[in-house]
Write a structure and sequence with these properties.
The chain has 133 residues and is mostly beta strands. The model has no long low-confidence stretch (mean pLDDT 83).
Length: 133
C-alpha cells in the first residue's frame, strides 16, 4: 500500500499553527517542525532530542534551507532544503531542492530533486524502519 502526503508552504501567522505536528502514515510516525526552535539550527543531537520527545520514526525539519537526509540512532531525519535556493548562512551557493517520499510498509524511498548548474538531478535514499533493531 502506498500513501500520498502533500504539504504546501505558504506565508502564515506564526500563531495560527503549532510548533510541531505528528502524522501517522502507514506504519510510520512522522514529526514535522519548521526548525527555528532547534539550537543550534540543524544540530543533529538537538534534532534527536526532539525526535525522542515527539516519539517519531522520521523527523522532517527546515529553517536552514539546506538539504540533508540521514539516519541517526535508528531514526530518519530529513531537511528538504529550499525549492527556490533561498539564502542560507550555511551555504555559500545554495542549491534549490525539494523531496518526495514514497512510503511503503516498512520502507521509505526519499527522492531528492536538486537544481545544479541549471540542470535538475534526482537521487534516491532508502530508509528501512527497524533495520537497526
Amino acid at each position: 500500500m502506498r500513501y500520498v502526503l502533500k504539504a504546501i508552504v505558504m506565508k502564515f501567522k506564526a500563531l495560527d499553527f503549532p510548533l510541531t505536528k505528528v502524522l501517522s502514515v502507514g506504519n510510520f510516525k512522522i514529526g514535522l517542525i519548521h526548525g527555528h526552535q532547534i539550537v543550534p539550527w540543524g544540530d543533529q543531537k538537538s534534532l534527536a532530542t526532539l525526535q525522542r520527545e515527539l516519539d517519531v520514526d522520521i523527523l522532517i525539519s527546515g529553517h536552514t534551507h539546506k538539504f540533508e537526509a540521514y539516519e541517526y540512532a535508528g531514526h530518519f531525519y530529513i531537511n528538504p532544503g529550499s525549492a527556490t535556493g533561498a539564502y542560507s548562512p550555511f551555504e555559500k551557493n545554495p542549491q534549490p531542492s525539494f523531496v518526495l517520499l514514497d512510503i511503503q510498509e516498512t520502507a521509505i524511498q526519499l527522492y531528492v530533486y536538486t537544481l545544479v548548474n541549471d540542470e535538475h538531478k534526482v537521487s534516491r535514499i532508502e530508509y528501512q524502519k527497524n533495520k537497526c533493531l
